[in-house]
Amino acid sequence: MRLSVDSGTIDGDLVVPDGARGVVCFAHGSGSSRHSSRNKRVAAALRRAGFAALLFDLLTAQEELVDERTRALRFDIGLLGRRLMMVTDALASERQVRDLPVGYFGASTGAAAALVAAAERPHVKAVVSRGGRPDLAGDALGRVFAPTLLIVGALDHEVLALNREAAARIPGPTELVIVPGATHLFEEPGALDLVADVATRHFTRYV
Predict the structure, then answer these.
(1) CB-based contacts of 201, cutoff 8 Å, min separation 6
(2) How many other C-beta atoms lie within 10 A of the C-beta of residue 9?
(3) Is-above-0.90 flag for pTM?
(4) Are 132 and 144 in contact (CB under 8 A)?
């Protein structure tokens, strides 16, 4: 998929398994892209469970170059949220998935973008955050009614505290899962597999 935005184009990879039960849109985190190996592993697990997966770049190629120098756009949650909303709206034109329920999977700052978009797109059925910064969604947290799963590594102490505070502000059903022995990037053996497992169960239940 390719979308035109005000400053260029953004690209995405959509894979739809036979008999897909829903589609999960991925919002990548700080300094990452649709090529994130961690998000690809989770997307593969979701596809095995019958979900279409859409991994999309939220920044244009030129914006990514600017962000590499300034590190500013990765924290522009308003911009990232608007881009995710555009991607979500574009699904209505994709024959393979236009009638499927939608969920969001956000990582790091992408989790805040997913929550901002979920607040504005109430038809989104569920949100999953991996090592996310939901606190950066600000006032939008109070308008998120989609069932939300926050996954945080037990050793990611600062982010864990921020997730606990954010969870208390989300009015919809919210669950916090703490992965034992995991740090922010879930690089420890088995950590990302656990993320994929609990995310799949969440989307299976709600999407």
Answers:
(1) none
(2) 12
(3) yes
(4) no
Share of residues in the chain with pLDDT > 70 (%): 98
Inter-residue contact 93 to 49 (CB < 8 Å): no
What distance in Å separates the CA atoms of residue 184 and residue 160, rounded to the nearest whole number? Answer: 9
Percent helix, strand and coil across the chain, each to the nearest 5? 45, 25, 35
Name the least confident of 33-37, 77-81, 203-207. 33-37
Q: Which three-class secondary structure state does DSSP give residue 174?
A: strand
pLDDT in the model for residue 31:
62
SS3 45: helix
Distance CA 184, CA 156 (A): 5
Tally of domains in the chain? 1
Task: Give me the helices (H) in the chain, please.
Answer: 37-48, 61-70, 77-90, 109-120, 157-167, 191-206
